Amino acid sequence: MSHHNTVFSQILKLLPRHEFSVLANKHDGQRRCDAMNRWTQFVAMATAQLTGRASLPDIESALASQKHLTYHLGSGSIKRTTLSRANQNLSSGFYEELFGKLYARCQSGSPSHKFRFKKKLFSLDASLLDVSLKVFPQAEYNKMKGAYKLHIGLDHDGLIPAFAAVTLGKTGD
Hints:
alpha+beta
């Protein structure tokens, strides 16, 4: 039986695994061998994002139904409690630095414009992300809802985001 790479595995190949591992070791150091590693966490969260999964049990069942594919991606088994613990305890600085490395790669390959401005041109956009007040009481937007605000800066030189920041919903643009 022949093996064919899935679209998801082709997307993951855009991430250099060596750089990913070096960053994981830098941010996490030595972790227990039974703890979820960064790659497994990343595969689970990328799957959730790309397939529109809404909850940890949903992510767990989707990945459990495709065990043979997660094996070929180099990911271990994923339990919702372990994923929850990893999401809660592992530093988000790892993903910020990973984004910076991927952004630098995208910047070098981005197209150029026919017109030029004297100064660098950026566009700023902010979007509200609704969250539950029961889960995120610190994100109170008004008495009835909680929200965070996602700020994105678009660099018009390469048409890729230059920066992203998440703040409380009441923060001004």
